[in-house]
Design a protein that fits this description.
There is one protein chain. This protein is α+β, with helices and mostly antiparallel strands. Helices cover 53% and strands 14% of the residues. The strands form three sheets. The chain has a four-stranded antiparallel beta sheet, covered by helices on one side. It has a three-stranded mixed beta sheet with strand order 1-4-5. Strands 8-9 form a two-stranded antiparallel ribbon. Bound molecules: acetoacetyl-coenzyme A.
């Protein structure tokens, strides 16, 4: 586990995010949710305050404050409106392929504009038939001399239409097993590139989620991230490792926001002659929610701090654990918060129903929680190979089964 140190820079960014959330996000959350409209004023305020630079290194115009600071900022925004939390955080998801895999020229070209909030970014990985199985992509990028020609459709592109840059994952070598996919930046307005369907969603309604269509889109070879074909799947996986603490922070914000509302309401609402906050079964829901949210926050911060300190092998497992635990917590806390609001909680006049609707997607996007469990379990099974000193404590028959089964799982997963 990484020691968690909150830098002055990170704390200042967190305070700024809280001010923007109070002024631009929370007061308008219901309006934008209902209308399914993007909160441009809040995004502009984030840009002017330098928040989009939080996760971008200083040499490319950012604050260089790292993933832990990103988590602090996202939590504040998501506490006010989980939809706006992802509208902000998805810019990090779209930028990480460039930050982690881009060439020096590419970083200098794209990152300063993202840091200033002049350009928004989206991440185009998922397709209709390739969600959890991210290697099963079918969007094709065909080599045409100085250009790639991209054809096909992407699904569930968050920020689609609002974003100016799209990190698109496409098949460049269909014959290759391990180097099939490449990441290419496509700019809004490139002929043949269109947003075709804006989804009508259960939650996070203030941020567009769309289908992006590519009809023979010609993109210069210089937009191939890293300048080398075949690195796309690795870039996607590394990106998700870096971005998952952000979505987990969104979940912590959503959980805290729901819990705060439920606590305030429970003090006000009287039944049986007393505020419901004095009833033990309500107290249990509040206490369990607060405990789980606090635990989720610690896990998110530890995973983010691990990334900021260079991380190593462990970051993938920690990011998956943070995403898994925090998003399951958000769903549970939002469900109990609705319960505390009772019949009013089910009505859209009250703010809590939105927290419940917004929470569900957290368990699905940036890798379903089933995928997170798979990532964590694969790490555990591999790490268990270093625990051979425990074998002497397991009776022989059992021990054989244990080793054979572990080998079976490892062989299956490699
Ligand atoms: N970092 C670097 N490389 C990695 C890696 C990681 N974390 N994980 C895997 N790789 C490498 C492996 O080493 C392997 O490399 P070689 O071919 O060189 O050996 C290669 O990638 C393939 O690895 P796996 O065999 O483990 O891959 P897999 O097909 O079994 O898939 C998976 C693994 C974890 C299930 C992966 O497909 C996955 O994460 N799926 C979920 C996708 C996802 O999260 N989608 C969300 C889209 S974004 C979104 O939802 C956001 C939004 O709109 C807001």
């Amino acid at each position: 586990m990484q020691d968690i140190v909150y830098s002055e820079k990170a704390k200042a960014l967190q305070a700024t995010a809280r001010e923007i959330a109070d002024k631009y996000v929370r007061p308008n959350a219901a309006k934008f949710d209902k209308a399914q409209e993007y909160n441009y004023d809040a995004a502009k305020a984030c840009g002017e305050a330098g928040l989009f630079g939080t996760f971008i290194p200083e040499e490319y115009g950012g604050n260089g404050a790292g993933v832990l600071a990103l988590a602090l900022v996202v939590e504040e925004l998501a506490k006010a409106d989980s939809g706006f939390g992802v509208a902000f955080a998805v810019n990090a998801l779209g930028s990480f392929p460039i930050i982690l895999g881009g060439t020096e020229e590419q970083k200098k070209e794209w990152l300063p504009k993202i840091a200033k909030g002049e350009k928004m970014v989206a991440f185009c990985l998922s397709e209709k038939y390739a969600g959890s199985d991210a290697q099963g992509l079918s969007v094709r990028a065909i080599d045409d001399g100085d250009h790639w020609i991209i054809c096909g459709e992407k699904k569930w592109t968050t920020n689609g239409g609002v974003a100016d840059y799209y990190s698109v994952f496409a098949v460049t070598d269909p014959e290759s097993k391990s180097r099939r996919i490449s990441a290419i930046v496509v700019e809004k307005g490139t002929p043949g590139f269109e947003v075709k369907k804006v989804e009508d969603k259960m939650g996070i309604r203030c941020v567009p989620v769309v289908e992006t269509h590519f009809d023979h889109v010609r993109v210069p070879k210089s937009n191939l991230i890293g300048g080398r074909a075949g690195m796309g799947f690795k870039h996607a996986m590394m990106t998700l490792d870096y971005a998952r603490p952000g979505v987990a922070a969104q979940a912590v914000g959503a959980a805290q926001g729901a819990l705060d509302l439920a606590t305030v309401y429970s003090n006000r609402r009287k039944q049986f002659g007393a505020p419901i906050s004095s009833h033990q079964m309500v107290q249990a829901m509040l206490a369990d929610g607060a405990t789980a949210t606090c635990a989720a926050r610690q896990l998110v911060h530890a995973s983010a701090a691990g990334i900021d300190s260079g991380g190593g092998e462990n970051i993938s497992k920690m990011a998956a654990m943070a995403k898994l635990f925090a998003t399951d917590t958000a769903m549970k806390v939002a469900t109990d918060a609705v319960q505390i609001f009772g019949g009013y909680g089910f009505m859209e006049d009250y703010p809590i129903a939105k927290y419940f609707r917004d929470a569900k997607i957290l368990q699905i996007y940036e890798g379903t929680n089933q995928v997170q469990r798979m990532v964590v379990a694969r790490h555990l099974v591999r790490e268990a190979m270093n625990l051979s000193h425990l074998e002497e404590f397991i009776p022989v028959e059992e021990q054989q089964t244990y080793v054979e089964e572990a080998e079976l799982v490892v062989n299956h997963n490699t």
